[in-house]
């Protein structure tokens, strides 16, 4: 079911500082910041040869990563995104085997313009998993 790792997401308290650190200190190529109001975040992608790192900053008071940053004020790994060929099929298989899909269970459009879903971290050893259809 799982394809390659699409990205690893890191929640950060200051997106500009994190972007500058990756770009200026580590010499990485970074994208422009992109606000995703439907997900409550602003994102920047660090583009690597074999994958991406997504830097996430809360957007608005109801951001799902605000609570994460309250517990981890310096930031930290937020989720891993895996690619899947057919997101409704993956959702149905996972639900049938007891995994909990967060939200309504209907995919939303993610930062790459493709359908995404999130799986409950308690079902995957404390790791929030995002699935993205490719």
Question: Which helices and strands occur, and which strands form pairs?
Answer:
Blueprint: E1 5-11, H1 15-25, E2 29-30, E3 34-36, E4 41-47, E5 52-58, H2 66-71, E6 76-84, H3 87-96, E7 108-109, E8 115-119, E9 128-133
Parallel strand pairs: 1-5, 6-9
Antiparallel strand pairs: 1-6, 2-4, 3-4, 4-5, 7-8, 8-9
**Beta strand count:** 9
Class by SSE composition:
alpha+beta
Architecture in CATH?
Roll
- CATH class descriptor: Alpha Beta
CA radius of gyration is 15 Å
CATH level-3 fold name: 2,3-Dihydroxybiphenyl 1,2-Dioxygenase, domain 1
Write the element-wise H/E pattern from the N-terminal end onward. Answer: EHEEEEHEHEEE
Distance between the termini: 12 Å
Q: How many helical stretches?
A: 3
Q: Kindly report the average pLDDT value.
A: 96
3D shape: globular
Total domain count = 1
Oligomer: single chain
Key phrases:
alpha+beta, 134 residues, 9 strands, globular, 2,3-Dihydroxybiphenyl 1,2-Dioxygenase, domain 1, nine-stranded mixed beta sheet
């Amino acid at each position: 079911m799982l394809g390659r790792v699409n990205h690893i997401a890191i929640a950060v308290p200051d997106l500009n500082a994190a972007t500058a650190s990756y770009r200026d200190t580590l010499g990485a190529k970074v994208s422009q910041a992109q606000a995703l109001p439907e997900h409550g975040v602003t994102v920047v992608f660090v583009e690597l040869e074999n994958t991406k790192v997504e830097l996430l900053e809360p957007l608005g008071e109801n951001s799902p990563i605000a609570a994460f940053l309250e517990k981890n004020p310096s930031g930290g790994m937020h989720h891993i995104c895996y690619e899947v060929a057919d997101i409704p099929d993956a959702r149905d298989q996972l639900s049938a085997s007891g995994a909990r899909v967060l939200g309504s269970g209907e995919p939303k459009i993610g930062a790459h313009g493709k359908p995404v879903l999130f799986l409950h971290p308690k079902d995957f050893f404390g790791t929030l998993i995002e699935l993205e259809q490719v």
